[in-house]
Amino acid sequence: MKIRKIQKNGYDNGASLAKAWRADGLVLYPGSGRAELGYLLSNEESSQKLGYAAATEGVNVNLLQRWEKYAIEQGNEKMLERIRAWDEKKLLQTVEKVQQKALAQKFDRRRYPEIQGLAAYRSAEAKGIADVLGVDYRRVLLCNGYGGYIHRIVREGGESELSEKSGCTTIAFKSSPKGPIIGRNLDAEIAALAGLQGHGEPVMFQYPEEMGYSYENTTYVNSEGLALQGSSIAYPQEPESPLSLVGMDIQDLIVRFCKNVTETLDLIERYNPFFGPTNLLVVDARGDAAAIEKTKNTFAVRRTDTNWIFTTDGVAVEAKTRKLQGDDTPAYQFSLQRHQLIEKLLKKEAKAPSIEAMQRIITDHALPSPVCKHLDKMPSFYPLASLYSFILVPQEKVYYFKVIRPGPTYPCQQEPVKYSYAFDGKGAEKGDPHVR
Ligand SMILES: [Zn+2]
Predict the structure, then answer these.
(1) Contact at 8 Å (CB) between 388 and 196?
(2) What is the domain range of residue 29?
(3) Residues 386 and 246 in one domain
(4) How close is the Cα of 357 to the center of ligand 1, in Å?
C-alpha cells in the first residue's frame, strides 16, 4: 500500500506528490487511464518497453499536435482549421487566463464550505509539482481538469471529443453475508494499457482531519466505508452549463466530505451547477445506495428497493435525464442493450449475492453489448475496451483487482490479485491471488 500524506499547504503537497510519483516510476502525462487528485499519470517503465510515447514526452507532450492529429483522423476540416490557428505560446497563455479566472471566483461560505480556498490551494499545488519536475506549471495544469476545458476553447465549443466516448460499468449488491459488494469495469482506449501496468495496489490519501476523510484512490472508498464509482455519459444535445469549476473534482469532494448516501445527495444538490455529465453510484457502509444521473445542468436520483443497483456507460434511464439524452443514436441503443443485460443478470445473481456472483456479472460476454468489452467484439463507433476490473468489499477492507496485459490479455482472462487496505497508516498486504 502506498501512502500519500496530504499536506496542509498546497505547494508542499504538490512537491511531495511529485516526489512520490517519481519514486513510484510514474510520469505526469495528459491522457491515460489512471489519476491521482485529478492528475493523469502513466507508468514510465512499461511505456518505454511497449514503445508508448508517454515515456519520452510526458508532461511536455505537444497537445496541439495531438489534437490536430485527432481532427485529421475524424476528417473534421473545420476543427483542424481552428486548431491550426493556435500555437504553444497562445495555448499556455490561455491556461494562465483560465487559472486567473478560477482564482477570482468567490463562493458563498455557508453553501460551499468544502471549496473555500480550493482554487488557490490547487494552483500552489501545481507549482509545487512543476518545481520538482522542472517544467512549466501551466503544463502541469493541462494534465488535470484544465486539459479538456482548454481543448474545448481551442475547438471553439462543443463536446470534448474524448468525453463523447463513454465507458465503465459499476454494479453493487447493497447487502450480502460480507456486507456491500461493489464490482467495477473500467473501459478506456487500448492505448492506456501501457500506463496501467502495475496499477492496482492501494494508494491511500491521508488527509489531516480538518481537510476531510482519508480515502483509497484505486477504488474510491473512504475511511467511513463510503464507496463511489460510476460510468460516463454525454449529453450532446443539452446546452452547456453556464458555470463550471475548472480543476474541481466532484468525486474527490464526495469521498472527502461525505460519510453516507444522504450527505452525498446533499453535496450533489449543492454542487449541481458545477459538474457533469456523469453517472455516479454511491454505496455506504450500511448498504444504503443511490445512482445519480448527472447531466450538464440537472440530475436524477435512482433508489432501488431491490438488493442491487448499477450504472453503465452511455445510458440514462430516469425520465428526466432520458429526455435530455435522446434515443436516436446507435451508441445509445448499444448501451441500452447492455443495461438490459445487466438487469437480467442481476435478477438471477442477486438471490445469492457473493463475490463469485459479482465476478460472473462483470465478466459476462453476451453480445451484442457485453459487460466485459473486448476491442475486437466492439462496433466501430465504440473504440473502448475493459482495461481493469475490481470487486470491492468495504466491510472487510479488501478488493480483488485485475488489469489488462499486453497481448492484449483482458482482465477476465486472469486471476485477480487480492489487496487489503487500512486507514490507520499501518499499511496493507497483498494476499492470495484467487477469489474467495
Ligand atoms: Zn472479457
Answers:
(1) yes
(2) 2-155
(3) yes
(4) 15
